[in-house]
Structure formats: structure tokens, C-alpha cells
Specification:
This protein has 322 residues and is α+β, with helices and mostly antiparallel strands. The protein has a four-stranded mixed sheet, with no helix packed on it. Helix 5 packs parallel to helix 9. The chain starts with a helix and ends in a 5-residue tail after the last strand. The relative contact order is 0.14.
């Protein structure tokens, strides 16, 4: 099965206009069993209360049933169970987490593997989240390298307000369909987007957003910002810049690094309009341009001010030494 995914990845890499019309045939019992071996089997239960141990105790029968329902077109995506968990380090409040049933999580992860094989060829170097062989450490190292070795003098810190809950289904479907034309895969994605959320016994239907917690949301949320942000920055905005300009993104956490302060301001200004097109907004209280880089301490010292700091991936980044 991994060999088949490798062949898909090669085709996606060498033919960037290819649309894949036949992918659902990969969703066999063997493929699902292989995917099961790659999953976190200590995850919480969904709305049906079934544990991973219970599902695994009759794995062969359950994956066979899943595949039969897929072939018959009778699979229905159950709502996810919503829980509120604390935000990451340095942040206050909670964020909603959607927990799928074990069976649905397995199917989501299986489809996500297929999508990853296709879209990994398209993703850019500035993106580090939810990608094979990449981690927060790689993103932090890239950011440090840009600031320390480049001509970076300004950093644009930005935050997307409620990113996962405001993803437009309309735009997301178009982004997926840019490469995927298999009707079964597209139908499954549509079912997951509209499955809804069960919270305190009440079913909430969703017209936008993709719940954090499901394996499919990882690749879909990454794909959304690939089109909304990464491609726009590299193909449209960066060529306008006269100085050095870099973007480092880990899922919805990103910063822009610039040689020229005016271009850092332009980045945020144009980004507001770009995001508005895709139903996204910046949290203005967490969005700013600051002097940052090798010479920021000395430059701000002339005005009797300390260099500002910014947060990225839960870490506070400090410029220079006082």
C-alpha cells in the first residue's frame, strides 16, 4: 500500500496539473489495517463511547464492514464529540476539540494518507505543520536562520481569529478539487465537513469550519492556508518586495520576516484583504510589526526603548541582549 502511495506522490510531483480521478480503490481492508498500525490507539472515545481497545478486539470485522459501507455508498459520518481544552503555553482560555468515533477516525486517517501523498508535492518550504519529516523544531530553526543570517530588521506577527471555525467549505472544496476528482473521496470530505458537533447532548450543524481533533482536519486546514497564504506570499507578494522577505508557518501560527519596515506593513495591509476573501480575519490585538533582528537592539536604544518580543509556537522570541 505504501508503494501505491509513493507512486501517487511521484505522479503528483512530476505533473502538477494532474487531477486524480481514481483513489478510493485504495481504501481496502489491508490499507485500513495498515493505517490502524500508524494511529494513536490511546485517543479518547467519540459520541458512541467505543474505545480503541474495543475496536481493535474485532479489527478484521470492523474494517471489512467499513469497506463494505464505502463500496455501497452507505457510510454516514457521525458528529464529533466536542470538548474544550486549554490553549497552548502562554495563551489564556480554551479551544474546542472535536473527537471522532474510533471507526471514523480510522477512515479519516486513511483518506488523509491519500491526500498527503497528493498535496505534499504542492506544499511550499515555508510550511512546517502536519507534514512528514517536519516538526515545530524545524519551523523554529528556520525562523532563527532567517533572522540571524538574513537581512531581517522587521517581524510581522499575526494571529488568525478562530481559524479552524471559520474555514469556508465553499473555498475548501475548490482547493481539494484542484487535485482530487475522485467522487468517493470528495463525497467523504463533504460528509465530514457537514457532520456537525455534539456538545452537551445538542447536535450543532456546521456550515463553516473544520473541527480540530479529526485526522482529516490536519491536512485540510494546511491545504486551506497553502492557498490563502503561502502561495499568495511566494507568488504575489514577495516579488513586489525590494528587500528580503520570508514567511514561516506552522499550521495557523505564522510570522513574516522583512528587511524593509514598509514592506512588513504592506504585508499585513494586503493580508487583511486577502484573508477577507476567504472568510478569515486577523486578531488585531495580536497583530503587529516590530523592529527585530541583529540590529534592532541598537536601533531602538537610540529612542530609549527596549526591543519588543513576539510569540511563535508557544515560545517568546527575544531580540538581543540589554
Amino acid at each position: 500500500m505504501s508503494t501505491q502511495l509513493g507512486q501517487i506522490a511521484l505522479k503528483a510531483k512530476w505533473d502538477q496539473k494532474a487531477r486524480f480521478t481514481s483513489l478510493a480503490h485504495l481504501l481496502t481492508p489491508d490499507f485500513l489495517r495498515e493505517t490502524w498500525g500508524k494511529m494513536n490507539r490511546k485517543a479518547a472515545s467519540g459520541i458512541d463511547g467505543e474505545s480503541c481497545e474495543q475496536f481493535e478486539s474485532e479489527l478484521d470485522r470492523r474494517v471489512q464492514e467499513l469497506c463494505e459501507r464505502l463500496r455501497a455508498g452507505t457510510y454516514r459520518a457521525p458528529p464529533v464529540r466536542r470538548v474544550d481544552i486549554p490553549k497552548g503555553p502562554g495563551k489564556t482560555g480554551t479551544r474546542p476539540l472535536g473527537i471522532p468515533t474510533v471507526a471514523d477516525r480510522l477512515l479519516q486517517r486513511s483518506v488523509a494518507r491519500i491526500l498527503e501523498a497528493v498535496f505534499e508535492a504542492d506544499f511550499l518550504d515555508c510550511s512546517y505543520g502536519f507534514r512528514p519529516g517536519r516538526s515545530p523544531h524545524h519551523a523554529l530553526r528556520a525562523l532563527r536562520t532567517r533572522i540571524v543570517t538574513g537581512k531581517v530588521r522587521h517581524v510581522a506577527e499575526a494571529d488568525i481569529r478562530g481559524y479552524f471555525t471559520h474555514i469556508s467549505h465553499h473555498w475548501l472544496r475548490q482547493m481539494v478539487a484542484h487535485r482530487i476528482a475522485d467522487p468517493v473521496i470528495l463525497s467523504l470530505i463533504g460528509k465530514w465537513l457537514h457532520a456537525g458537533v455534539m456538545h452537551d447532548g445538542v447536535l450543532l450543524r456546521t456550515e463553516e469550519g473544520t473541527p480540530q481533533g479529526g485526522p482529516i482536519s490536519c491536512i485540510l486546514s494546511n491545504l486551506y492556508l497553502h492557498h490563502c497564504l503561502d502561495l499568495w506570499f511566494e507568488k504575489k507578494f514577495k516579488p513586489q518586495c525590494q528587500g528580503e522577505a520570508y514567511l514561516v508557518r506552522f499550521v495557523d501560527d505564522f510570522v513574516g520576516c522583512f528587511e524593509n519596515g514598509r514592506e512588513a506593513d504592506d504585508f499585513l495591509g494586503q493580508l487583511r484583504g486577502r484573508f477577507a476573501k476567504f472568510n478569515l480575519t486577523l486578531a488585531e490585538e495580536k497583530t503587529q510589526v516590530m523592529l527585530f533582528g541583529r540590529f534592532a537592539t541598537e536601533r531602538r536604544a537610540t529612542y530609549g526603548k527596549r526591543p519588543k518580543t513576539f510569540e511563535f509556537l508557544g515560545l517568546k522570541h527575544v531580540c538581543g541582549v540589554d
